[in-house]
Structures
1.
Amino acid sequence: MTKKKKSHSQKTVDGYENFTARVGMQTPNQHADSTYRPDWTSRNRLLLEYAYRSSWIIGAAVDTVADDMTRKGVRITSQMESTDKGAIESLFDELEIWESLNNAIKWSRLYGGALGLIMIEGQAPSTPLRVETIGQGKFKGILPLDRWQVNPDLNRRIKTLSKDLGRPEFYDIVTVENGIPAWRVHYSRLIRFDGVTLPYQQAKTENEWGMSVIERIFDRLTAFDSTTTGIAQLVYKAHLRTFKVNKLREIIGFGGEEYQALMKHMNMIRQYQSNEGMTLMDADDTFETHSYSFSGLDNVLARFAEQISGATGIPLVRLFGQSPSGFNTGDADLANYYDNIATQQARRLKQPLRKLFEIAHQSTLGKPLPDDFAFAFNPLWQMSDMDKSAVAVNMINALNAAQDGGMLSMKAAMSSLRDLSDIISIGSTITDEDIANAEEEVPPRLSAVHAPTVKTGGNPISNEPYSSCP
């Protein structure tokens, strides 16, 4: 019978180590004691609010992304009547939908979570929202509520198979001193935004909300503000003047006429230095000046600014408003940042806006949204007039070529040109009536256009040699 070998557990560590030189995370050195601990900044509501009010950088880190996500709005890309489009856009402006969404996103980034309450007149907030039951003119806008104004009911969970599976089914409004009723709101009537999405176990510690965007960068922000304040205080000591007086302590200690004479002398020095640049003093006294050099401080401040920019994901040219230096124009940084904003719009705003369009369409027009309804976010990147003209020429030439090639009708070409009007600034005056009156038939291809036939007559030409002699 064979005996089984006993397995011995052996501790293994990853990474490079040198015990003799005390290099590595498992060796006794200062770096080996480095670790990470939670600071729970997201739970300290007053600290977040004080920082938001006092530090312009924290305000910019919170507001910039929210402003850019809602700054340009959307354009409806599906075919709809111009009057219907105008009615929905007017309702969005009247109810300040974009402003409400902007505030909800801001408070989610500041506190870690926020809600947008969809207000429907005549319906109980605790009941599930059914868009088809909304009466005309009953949509009254969105009410932003931060995480501290509501309490999620963690005992009632969503059990239907959907993206909201496992989330709270109801939220209780607890801030009622400003006139908001203490409603119990069904999740279908809410638009939820989380700040920084947390993993499951960490989300439980935050009452299943997200984390404030300030928590990750709080140490870098305080370092930047401390450096800025320290440099500002150094300005007061940039030019120091010292005046050595023989037996100064005795003069101050005894006081009397000698002390008064000393003060009179100092006032005289200040007066003549200001007016004539002259210093009068005793032969035994010594006057010296000391200047402080600020070289290198700008680089230190710039490095802290770069860390904040990298932590927030906002480029320096957008966060600090500073002009790019050297050969960097800042266009590439802004382009990457706008791509990130477009990604967040698609992930966080696409579905809520679709829901709001359904509600606005039902409330304004009294009918459901078309199945082929589609919209797109307007781009944040703005082309120059020269670039717009170049793109306009290329697009018009492409539409003309497609029409001449038989691939587009006049009606389709006009519709495409109007859809591109937001980009190339040409075609916005094309109306639905102009498109309806345009030709529907596709023009014939150039190859199908035959040359007119030439009629032939008379005798054929003889192959015999021709002679002019009789």
2.
Amino acid sequence: MRNGNQWILAAVLAALLVGATWFCVSVWRSTPGMPVYGNVILAVAAVLMLVSGCGLIALMFYSQRKGYDEPPRSNDTARK
């Protein structure tokens, strides 16, 4: 970082990160725990989201590799 403004910005952002982390941890500790079925549902939802996200990214790479993302082109010559 070359000038003082960047250091000030970095310090402010670090302070915000520390404050947000402290707030999240304090709220997390003050709330009651979830029952077991809640943890199971949360885990299943997280796995399904991960699988669907990976699947969509795989489809994106497949589509790009096969050329489906290219603009349409016509092979016909101009009609007279």
3.
Amino acid sequence: MSPALPDGEPVPPDGSLPAWVAAGGGASGPTASRGFGVYLHVPFCSVRCGYCDFNTYTASELGGGASQASYASTALREIDLAARVLRDAGLPERPVSTVFVGGGTPTLLPAGDLGRLLHGVRDAWGLAPDAEVTTEANPDSVTPESLAELAEAGFTRVSFGMQSAVPHVLATLERTHDPRRIPDVVRRARDAGLQVSLDLIYGTPGESLDDWRASLDAALATGVDHVSAYALVVEAGTKMAAQVRRGEVALPSEDDQATKYELADELLTAAGLTWYEVSNWARTDDDRCRHNLAYWRGDDWWGIGPGAHSYVAAPSAGPAHATTGPATDPTTVTDDTGASVQDPRVGVRWWNVKHPRRYAALLEAGTSPAAGRELLTRDEGRLEQAMLGVRLHEGLDLAVLSPAGRRAVAGLVANGLLDGRAAIAGRAVLTLRGRLLADTVVREITDE
């Protein structure tokens, strides 16, 4: 069961954006210089893994009106709608800097369909000359021919869900691929001209430290240039959560997960990969996932597909969605006293209906598939920037924080969670211990 959508205000049937999003955002304004990415959600999986709470469906869960065969055509309708909404809002035209196809298992769709979606993005907005175009894939959902077809269509990068190299760990996760195929698929993707990332999960019930070391060693043996390593989080409503509740599997301790994170950082660093976000390591700056960096840094993006989220900042938000001073949006509103004041909102986020059948029906009727939206204030934008920015290797500008947040920095330095020299230079940068306790750091610096 995927998590419920957040509450929010209604979205106009045509999907139009608030007028203040475009106010002052001409061709030379801040919106024009802010990156624009596109996320394409493919909601299909061959099986549902017991730990997964993503908005994904197997064929038996869908029924009519939401077939894999028709999905590309349906998503192309939302791309057309998105292009019209942004154009009608008067926002400056920007080529797409990053495209990320996620899921689900996007490569359950034919490579030709994924190519059609990418061509639709190109036709709607154009692609930047150095655009990064990624698709997620399961190791058993690609062939040399499909990888070559993806590269020919314009994809530049593939992210394989390796998760583990140990059969009993994969079995617990209900992953179906043969871990012995990993070196082959990495080599074939590279032969096709694609950059490769491997995703790993640590903290699976029954996984030993030696098991985790074996998975890291296997990933590094491929010579891969990007690795994401995530601690398993068992979400309510999943099959694994029920197994834990019944006592059928036992979750590892926080100390066990911390030890596995430290081992990952040690081995990945020794192999020449550097952390650039708490859960991500890359060999060079060019190997980093620019699409995810755009999320963490507050760029604009449109999410295509059922359950997908989108975000567009107002011009006053500048290069990121939070500001450190008074809002500069020229749009005015009336406050409680009747005085005209500058509109404090810095961006709008919205999300689509979750079920593919409902998503397809709305687009078929010419209606926006958006289920709701929220209008972010300057304070909310600042909070989000703090939560996301502090997770990056470059750290967070302390000027973003409230006075209370800045006062908390000294204590976090004293406790070894933030780098002292960086703090003196005006940035909050996590130490290794701070990365292990990143949520604690976020709470401290955002506590009002």
